[in-house]
Here is the input.
Amino acid sequence: MKNSENETRSTSPEGTRSSETGTINLESLGTRLREERQRLDVSLREIARRIDVSPSLISQIERGLAMPSVSTLWLLATELGLTLDALFGSSDRTAVASQKEQNDASVKSLVQRAGNRKRIRLAGGVIWERLTPQPDDEVEFLHVVYQPGAESCPPDSLFRHGGREYAYVLSGRLGLQIGFESYELEAGDSTAFAAQMPHRLWAIGCEPAVAIWVVINRTDDSRVTGGR
Here is the structure.
């Protein structure tokens, strides 16, 4: 079973809330994951077995008590058949429906303003920001930051999922391991690879690594046994 050291317990005074505009709090993220797992009638122990983590970790994530690592969130979303847009969105479907008219103007917008991106903060200092102005089921288009010392997963626990990944490094240095090969990407460097190959990402040096990331066809994963 994978180590859960990459997951971080919430220690904020409010437990699971974030005051940062656009940031999805842990409670909402956990609730969305739990709702989908229950809708699919998959037990907590079974989903933990499928992605090779402890049931206690899944329980903590679903209750908003722990931040998942990049690899754990990717694996959970893939196993449950969720797009990242579903995670960025509200878990309260009724609230979404009641606010539909208020949100129509922003949903139909063709421009995503920098100041109001949807954001998820993950364990270890990784931040995902959605770059699409509205949900997109076919592509995941992200602004990604790896703070110094941050990594997508431990060195001995490379992960994989469906689709293809494309990335362009804006600043800092980003380590990338794909299978047995390792690379160091600097500002201006880019990469493209099949995401079903085991891979890992980490920040190099004392500055954040910032990149633009695109994932297509992530849910097209023949290894997934449930969730779709």
Observations:
- Residues 20 and 210 are 19 Å apart (CA to CA).
- The chain has one domain: 8-216.
- The longest helix spans residues 26-39.
- The radius of gyration is 17 Å.
